[in-house]
Amino acid sequence: MKFRALFRPKTMAVIGVSLRNDQHPANVVFNKNHLRYPVKVFPVNSKGGSLHGEAVFKNVADIPHKVDLAVIAVQAEQVPEILAQCIESGVEGAAVISGGFAEIGRNDLQQALVSMARKDHFPFIGPNCLGIYAPATVDTFFLPIERMVRPEQGNVAVVSQSGGILVDQMLKFKEEGIGLSLGVSIGNKAMIREIDLLKYLEKDPATKVMAFYVEGFARGEGRDFVLAASRCRKPVIVIKSGKTAGGGRAVASHTASLAGDYEVFSQVLAQMGVVEAKDELELISFCEALSCYQVPIEGRMGIITGSGGHGAMAVDVCSSHGLPVPPLTVPKQENIRTDLSRSIKKIASLGNPLDLTGSAIDEDFVTAARHLSTLPEIDCVLMLLLPYLPGITADLGARLSSIYEKAGKPLIAYVPHVEKFRMLIEGFELNGVPVSHSIEAAVLMAEALRRRQPC
Amino acid sequence: MLKKEIGKTLETARPNGWVLEPDAKAILDAYGIKIPRFVRAAQWEEALPFVRDHGFPLVAKVISPRILHKSDVGGVVPGIESDEELHETFQRFSKMEAFQGVLVEEMAVGRELMIGAKVDDQFGPIILFGMGGTAVEIYKDTVLRMAPLQEKDIPSMIRNLKAHLLLEGYRGSEPVNKGVLTKTLLAFSNLVMDIHDSIESIDLNPVLCSSKQCVVADARIVLR
Hints:
Chain A has 17 helices and 19 strands. By secondary structure, chain A is α/β, with parallel strands linked by helices.
């Protein structure tokens, strides 16, 4: 199956637009794409007529251009016929937004779509989904454009069984400055499923990391998915809902009782180096960290701070995640001390965490990061920056980022996220260094790089 | 035991839903997994030559297609030290439901571990490994891996147990032989991959591991 036309369409038919009700999902999709995205959009309704001055085609076959993507938003009973027309007239693929299929027990109707599409190798997303959001390319979500929170274009792809969760994640991506390469809501995943998208995204040059929100896999599907994910060169993040087993069903053996569905899910992911996010905070932190760094680490942390309290808290969080903070030997500490500025030379504690004190200046943070980046006992540097300290300037983010470029050791920053520190934060983010707004989330970012390592 | 015979054993056990312990052990034996020396006796006299040859202590376990959890009904007697004790045990067991005989077995020693398998709906055959004994569901100190296992999986399986230090020879106790444990786990994984179409789950519990050997003291194969 070829997905490129689906996700990077040049032409799109929106089938099922209403001539009377402009709130209809198909109209929302038409309106938000028409003249706003580079994709050329054609409205379709079997009655014909016109919509906002554009001719409405009675049949997708009447459109005088080759159609890459059809968005289908007609009633469930009519979808098989519409899908047949799309296949017949050479459309490349479809997103079936309509609900009323397996989710309400109409497996027969859903199966009709799948049989038809399989026979002709016609890829379709859904049914019962929001479809596709490709930044600056196309948006099939039936949410009015002014209500959408759109993240920047970036390198993280998100695939979700739930449309609502996907929209929510996009909102959080925007808040945290994480860029999106593609968002796909797969709904009932009748034909295109997680593993198909994993294989597509692995080859997609715009995507460096992919995250999947999964409610469940079909029989044996989880096995195929994790095996494919373990062979994938790009990090794969999975968040699972429905972790608690329904009911205390009696089981005949200890193994069956100890190996509950979620325990198996979680441990098999870890075995295969698939990064499991256990909750939303982990998901966002992991997406941000892995969008910057794709190489796994063991998680031996070097911590740099301007406040002893922040250093101590970070050590606690690291230790609760099982991330060691190895102490530095005295000669190594003295080596760093020589290069520090005169005002802190005598008062800085350099045992790890490295507390440079409130008198530290930009240069001291750069020096400390540069040294830690060369030490073999450290494989990740955590930088706790408090921009209210007088010696810290807005340039520091960009300066520290260049250390990663030289030394290749992942650097993660914590900066309180308030508007006045924006330039410092962007100095990191625009240079590919992840920034967190809490110590906990900063440590989670390191945890993400470690979970990428098969256990 | 050939693959064909294993298939036959599983087929015979199917109406009952699970494989009787002596049959389950014969299957393990065929895969090179160590089991205790045992005799299966319907009458007490049939056990005597084995008893004379082996000596005491011995363990006796009831064989009945209706008793899956033997200890729950008093169907396991460890530490038998005399003919009289053995005789009494036979008499008591013979009154149990659907009694088919008694498994008289040598007593193995070692750290109590557990090895198990389950066919998961989403992920297929899964191997479980952890601390064994009757309280496994209280401690829940186990790790799960998707089968087949590879040799490189084993060290992390051991390391991920909370009680892994007990396997290293904690406070002067005998360490578990990692080489033998690895071989046992890999052999078990082979077995699971061969018969996963027929099974729902397998419990080998306890598996008694010492510095010399790993012996499966009890085995339960539940069929699908």
